[in-house]
């Protein structure tokens, strides 16, 4: 039996979001921003990315409202631009943390970075919970259509 997604790619929030930020460089630039690396030259050096690709991706991230340009100036230096996350961009934190958690659990052993509560240092993990706060297994969920009303 042939199965089809319940919504077209053009109308699916998951597909639209993946199309906007799903390319490797976009995700790596967002990773840098979540680690606090916001200066153009620092991002470029960390990622080994060409100037043209970095400029293109930063322009796209700014255009979709995920990052914004912010002027900064170091002592006795000219003004420069940093690229910082907007509130909309910070919302992607859950996605980035989910990727980190999945990578820690699913990929070959290597250097791992735990997700911890800042105030206590205690490990935390992302989970799916229902409206009552009860933990739900991913096998027990489905994506349902909702109206915009």
Calculate the terminal CA-CA distance, rounded to whole Å: 34 Å
Per DSSP E runs of 2 or more residues, the count of β-strands stands at 4
Number of helical segments? 6
Helix content: 25-40%
| Derived structural class | alpha+beta
Mean pLDDT: 90
Q: H/E order of the elements?
A: HHHHEEHHEE
In the sheet with the most strands, the strands line up as 1-2
Give the overall shape, derived from the CA principal axes: globular
Largest sheet descriptor = 2 strands, antiparallel
**What is the CA-atom radius of gyration, in angstroms?**
19 Å
Strand content is: 5-15%
Description:
This protein is an alpha+beta fold and 149 residues long. It contains 6 helices and 4 strands; from the N terminus they run ααααββααββ. It has helices at 13-21, 24-34, 40-47, 51-63, 87-90, 93-106, and strands at residues 67-72, 80-85, 128-129, 135-136. The strands form 2 sheets. The protein has a two-stranded antiparallel ribbon with strand order 1-2. A two-stranded antiparallel ribbon has the order 3-4. A hairpin with a 7-residue loop joins strand 1 (67-72) and strand 2 (80-85). The mean pLDDT is 90.
């Amino acid at each position: 039996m042939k199965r089809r997604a319940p919504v077209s790619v053009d109308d699916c929030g998951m597909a639209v979001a993946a199309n906007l930020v799903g390319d490797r460089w976009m995700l790596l630039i967002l990773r840098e921003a979540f680690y606090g690396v916001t200066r153009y030259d620092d991002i470029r050096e960390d990622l080994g990315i060409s100037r043209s690709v970095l400029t293109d991706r930063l322009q796209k991230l700014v255009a979709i409202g995920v990052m914004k340009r912010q002027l900064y100036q170091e002592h006795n230096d000219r003004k420069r631009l940093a690229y910082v996350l907007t509130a909309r961009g910070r919302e992607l934190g859950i996605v980035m943390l989910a990727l980190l958690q999945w990578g820690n659990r699913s990929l070959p052993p290597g250097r791992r970075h735990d997700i911890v509560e800042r105030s206590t240092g205690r490990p935390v993990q992302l989970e799916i919970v229902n409206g009552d706060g009860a933990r739900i297994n991913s096998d027990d969920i489905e994506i349902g259509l909702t109206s915009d009303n």
